[in-house]
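TA notes, week 10

Several of you asked for a full example with nothing omitted. So below is the full record: structure tokens for the whole chain, then the designed sequence directly under it. When grading your own attempts, check the secondary structure regions first.
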């Protein structure tokens, strides 16, 4: 098996959510943070399968990817106890981990009905991520526009600091709920680890969000902060 550039990107991204991963048979990759507040799922081009048909785990996904990068044109074979990585001149055996020592998703999330929906474009996501780094703020809030309540606004800030520097951008029209409904859905910016791209965003008052890439092949579920409100 050769891993495509897209699959390598997904694996690198998932390693930022959880350093470990469990592979199950098929072309779907899943991860969940150790705190279980971020979950990612991706459909990839490759079909993963060990030689004995059993699930297999990697304890340090970044280390595995770094090992793969040592090879010029790596071919990977997943055996019963380890992965064999080789090219024309080199070979390594990379041992699997006991899945009992890692954290991995054990069930699918059933997304509740969403009170707010909008499309987050790649350009807007990039602006928000860059603003977070530039202003060094820990929070993202999704709220109604202050000057135009018909709009949904995303704003990065430090909610514990009344004089925090902020950056806000309109992300769409508010088309759900009652016209006088106010909401503030808070996220920790450190959880916003999506790959670049356009996402359809759903946010529930039950303090869970779902972000699905527009091609449907990549989904993240991200928990909201407990002080989020929908009134």
């Amino acid at each position: 098996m050769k891993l495509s550039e897209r699959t390598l990107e997904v694996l690198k991204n998932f390693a930022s959510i959880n350093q470990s991963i469990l592979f199950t048979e098929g072309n779907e990759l899943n991860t969940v943070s150790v705190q279980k507040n971020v979950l990612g799922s991706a459909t990839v081009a490759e079909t993963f399968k060990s030689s004995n048909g059993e699930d297999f785990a990697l304890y340090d996904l970044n280390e595995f990817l770094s090992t793969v990068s040592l090879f010029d044109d790596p071919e990977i074979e997943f055996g019963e106890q380890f992965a064999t990585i080789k090219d024309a001149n080199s070979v390594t055996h990379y041992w699997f981990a006991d899945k009992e020592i890692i954290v991995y998703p054990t069930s699918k999330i059933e997304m509740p009905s969403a009170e707010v929906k909008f499309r987050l474009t790649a350009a807007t996501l990039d602006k928000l991520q860059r603003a977070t780094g530039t202003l060094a703020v820990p929070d993202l809030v999704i709220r109604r526009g202050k000057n135009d309540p018909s709009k949904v606004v995303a704003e990065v800030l430090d909610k514990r600091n009344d004089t925090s520097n902020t950056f806000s951008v309109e992300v769409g029209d508010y088309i759900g709920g009652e016209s006088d409904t106010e909401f503030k859905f808070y996220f920790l910016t450190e959880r916003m680890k999506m790959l670049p791209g356009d996402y359809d965003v759903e946010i529930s008052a039950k303090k869970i969000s779902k972000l699905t890439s527009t091609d449907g092949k990549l989904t993240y579920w991200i928990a909201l902060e407990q002080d989020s409100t929908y009134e």
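The chain has a mean pLDDT of 95. Use that as a sanity check on your answer.
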